C-alpha cells in the first residue's frame, strides 16, 4: 500500500529511491479497485470542437474506458473549492487525485488530513504548488507530475510573450479593433529583440529550451540557477551563468521567470528587488504568480519602472474579476494556458495514464516525475 | 543632374551600375540647393517620449540641421493625399521625396508628371510599392530604399505573429481585460509550434532571417522563391526548397508571406488559391496587404478555412475604419509597425542620411538599395 509505505518504511529499504527491491515492490503494490478523482476545467461547447482536447472535464484525459475496464471508479469534476464542492464529497474515500495547474484544486493540509485513503496526487502537467507538499510528505503520500510534458509549450509561449512586450503588440491590436490607426502611439516604444539583454531566473528544462530558442535572435543571454548548465550546451547557446541573482537582474532588459514556486521563491520579486531592476524592464512570468508581490508589480507597471509584464500565472487561480493585474497598464496577461496546448494535453494525458498503470502494477514512475516520493520531498523542494 | 541622367545616358557609360567612372560621377553630380520633402507619420504627444523616435514628423529622421547647414530646404509633413494636401503643394518643385511604408505617400504617375524637378525617391524603410515604379522609371528617376534597415525587425515580428496565432493568444488577453477566465475557450485550439509545417513564400533577406529564427523550434521548414538559398545556409537552417508554390502551400500549417508586392504577386492569395490551403491554416503577412484578395481572406477567416490571420499590412494604408480585416474573426492585426521599431528607425534614418550625402556628392548608393536606378528597374521588379 502506498499510504502505509511511509517515510520510515522506505528509509529501511535503501537510500536509493530507484532501488526497486522485492520488498519495496511488495510495499508499493496496490491491489483492488481504486477511487480516482480528476479535477479539470470544463470545456462546455468547446469540448466537441477538437477530438484531441483531452484535458477538459468532458474528455477526462481520455482514460475513463481504460480505468473502468479494470474495475476502478473514476469521478471527474471542475467543482473544486468549498465545503459543498463535488471534490470535497470525495475527499474522505478517494485513493488518487489528479489535478492540473490550469484549474488548480488546492490540496491543503486539512484536505490531506480528511483524505484517509489518499495515496497518490498526480499533476496533469507540471507544477505541484497547489498542493501542501509538507503535509503530503508528512502523510507519506506520493506527489508526481508529468515532467517534460509541456516544457516546449511553455518555452515557446515565453518567447511569444517576450516579443509581444518588446514590440508593444497589444496597443497595436487594440487600435485595429477600435477603428484607430496611430503608428506613433505604438512605435515610440517598440524595439527589436536583437541586441537586448535577456536573463532567465532558473535554467531548468523550460529555461534551457527558451535559451536555445533565443539563440538566433542575437541577444545577450544570461541565466541564474543553483547549478551551471552543462558546459557543451552553455557554449552552444552562448548564455552566461550568473551566480548572484541580484547581480544579474539589474543588467537585464528582459527578465523571464523559470523557477518553481517554493518557500524560497515566494514573493521573490518584492518592492525592493523590483526597485533595483533597470527602468523600463520587461518581465515574462509563466512560472507562478506568487513569485511576484502582486501589488509591487502593479505599482511598478503604473510608474513605468516595469515597461511591460506578461504571463499566464496568477495568485490565486482562476484570477478573480477584481485582480489588479487585469487592469494595470502595459500588461499582456492571459489565463493559465501556456502548458495546456493540444499537443501538451496529448502528452500529459499519456503521462498520467502511464503513471496510473505503474501505480496499479506497483512499479516506480520515471524518476524525474516525483515531487514527493512516499513521504520524501524531491531535492529542489528541500 | 539625376533627372537628366536618364536610361539612355547611363547605358552609354557602361553596363556595370557600380562602375563609377569620372563621366558617371559628372553626370550624377547634383550641385546647388535642393528642396527635400519628407512624409512621415505624426507622433504628437509621443514624440517627446523617446529621444530615438526618429521616424516621425517631429524628429524628421534627425537630419534637419545637417540638411539646412548645407543650404538645402527640408519640408516635412504627414498631410499626403488629395489636391489640397501639404505634399501636393510641393510636388511641382521638390527635388527629393522621402516616404515610408508606414504612412505611405502614394506617388502616382500623375504626381510624377507634375514633379518637374523630381530626381530621387527615397523610402525610409523597405518597400516602394506606394510608388508607381514604371512611371518613375519612364521619367528617369531613381528610387531607393534602405535595404536591410529593418529586416531583423520584421523577421522577429513575424515569429511573434506565428506564435500569437498558434497559441490563440488574443482571446486569452481579451478574457483577462473583460474580467473572464475560460481556459477551454482558448486551449481547444492552442497548439505547439514544434512539429508544424511552416512555409515562407519568398526567402529573401527577411525570409531567411525568419527561417534561421525558426530553426530551434523543430518545425518542418519549407520555402518557395525564384532561387534556392545558398546550400550551406539551407543546410544549416534545414529548410526545404519548393520550386512550385502551389505544391508547397497545401502542405503548410503556417504560411508566411515574404515577397515584395509586384504585378506578379498582387492578389496572389485569391479565393481559388486559398481554397486549396489546408483547412485551419494560419497566415502571417507583414509583406503587403494587396498580395491578398481582401474579401477572400475575410470569407476564409469567417468559414474557419483560415484559422488565424495576422499581419501589419493593409490595402490601403492607413486602413479605413470600415476595413473588413478589422472585424473578421481570428485575426491578430496591427497597424503597419513591424519595420518601425526604434532600432529600425535609427538604422533607416542613418541609411537615408547616407544616401542623401552620396546624392549631394554625386556618388552611387549601396547597390542593393536601388529599386529604380536612373530609369532602370532592379531585377526583382522586372
TrEMBL record, chains A, B:
Residues 160-338 form the D-isomer specific 2-hydroxyacid dehydrogenase NAD-binding domain. NAD(+) binds at residues 205-206, 225, 260-264, 286, 312, 336-339. Residues 66-363 form the D-isomer specific 2-hydroxyacid dehydrogenase catalytic domain. GO terms for molecular function: formate dehydrogenase (NAD+) activity. Substrate binds at residues 126, 150. It is an enzyme of class 1 (oxidoreductase). It is found in: Mitochondrion. Gene3D superfamilies: NAD(P)-binding Rossmann-like Domain. It catalyses: formate + NAD(+) = CO2 + NADH. GO terms for biological process: formate catabolic process. InterPro entries: D-isomer_2_OHA_DH_cat_dom (IPR006139), D-isomer_DH_CS (IPR029753), D-isomer_DH_CS1 (IPR029752), D-isomer_DH_NAD-bd (IPR006140), FDH_NAD-dep (IPR033689), NAD(P)-bd_dom_sf (IPR036291). Keywords: Mitochondrion, NAD, Oxidoreductase. Its EC number is 1.17.1.9. The record marks 288, 336 as: Important for catalytic activity. It comes from the Eukaryota. CDD domains: FDH. GO terms for cellular component: mitochondrion. Catalyzes the NAD(+)-dependent oxidation of formate to carbon dioxide. Involved in the cell stress response. Belongs to the D-isomer specific 2-hydroxyacid dehydrogenase family. FDH subfamily. Homodimer. This is Formate dehydrogenase, mitochondrial. The lineage of its organism: Eukaryota, Viridiplantae, Streptophyta, Embryophyta, Tracheophyta.
Amino acid at each position: 500500500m502506498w499510504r502505509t509505505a511511509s517515510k520510515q518504511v522506505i528509509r529501511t529499504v535503501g537510500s536509493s529511491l530507484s532501488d526497486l527491491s522485492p520488498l519495496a515492490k511488495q510495499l508499493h503494490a496496490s491491489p483492488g479497485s481504486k477511487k480516482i478523482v480528476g479535477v479539470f476545467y470544463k470545456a462546455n461547447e468547446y469540448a466537441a470542437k477538437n477530438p484531441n482536447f483531452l484535458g477538459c472535464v468532458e474528455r477526462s484525459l481520455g482514460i475513463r474506458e481504460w480505468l473502468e475496464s479494470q474495475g476502478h471508479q473514476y469521478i471527474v469534476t471542475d467543482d473544486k473549492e468549498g465545503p459543498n464542492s463535488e471534490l470535497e464529497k470525495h475527499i474522505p474515500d478517494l485513493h488518487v487525485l489528479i489535478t492540473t495547474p490550469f484549474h488548480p484544486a488546492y490540496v491543503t493540509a486539512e484536505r490531506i488530513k480528511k483524505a484517509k485513503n489518499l495515496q497518490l496526487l498526480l499533476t496533469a502537467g507540471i507544477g505541484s504548488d497547489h498542493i501542501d507538499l509538507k503535509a503530503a510528505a508528512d502523510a507519506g503520500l506520493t506527489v508526481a507530475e508529468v515532467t517534460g510534458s509541456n516544457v516546449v509549450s511553455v518555452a515557446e509561449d515565453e518567447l511569444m510573450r517576450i516579443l509581444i512586450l518588446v514590440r508593444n503588440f497589444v496597443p497595436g491590436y487594440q487600435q485595429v479593433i477600435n477603428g484607430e490607426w496611430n503608428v506613433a502611439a505604438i512605435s515610440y516604444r517598440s524595439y527589436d529583440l536583437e541586441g537586448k539583454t535577456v536573463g532567465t531566473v532558473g535554467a531548468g528544462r523550460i529555461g534551457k529550451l527558451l535559451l536555445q530558442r533565443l539563440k538566433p535572435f542575437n541577444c545577450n543571454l544570461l541565466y541564474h540557477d543553483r547549478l551551471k548548465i552543462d558546459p557543451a550546451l552553455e557554449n552552444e547557446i552562448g548564455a552566461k551563468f550568473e551566480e548572484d541573482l541580484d547581480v544579474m537582474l539589474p543588467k537585464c532588459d528582459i527578465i523571464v521567470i523559470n523557477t518553481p514556486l517554493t518557500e524560497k521563491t515566494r514573493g521573490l520579486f518584492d518592492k525592493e528587488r523590483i526597485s533595483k531592476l533597470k527602468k523600463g524592464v520587461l518581465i515574462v512570468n509563466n512560472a507562478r504568480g506568487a513569485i511576484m508581490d502582486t501589488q509591487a508589480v502593479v505599482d511598478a507597471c503604473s510608474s513605468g519602472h516595469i515597461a511591460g509584464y506578461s504571463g499566464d500565472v496568477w495568485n490565486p487561480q482562476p484570477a478573480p474579476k477584481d485582480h489588479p493585474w487585469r487592469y494595470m497598464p502595459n500588461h499582456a496577461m492571459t489565463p493559465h494556458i501556456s502548458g495546456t496546448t493540444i499537443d501538451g494535453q496529448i502528452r500529459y494525458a499519456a503521462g498520467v495514464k502511464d503513471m496510473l498503470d505503474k501505480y496499479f502494477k506497483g512499479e516506480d514512475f520515471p524518476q524525474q516525475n516525483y515531487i514527493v516520493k512516499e513521504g520524501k520531498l524531491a531535492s529542489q523542494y528541500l
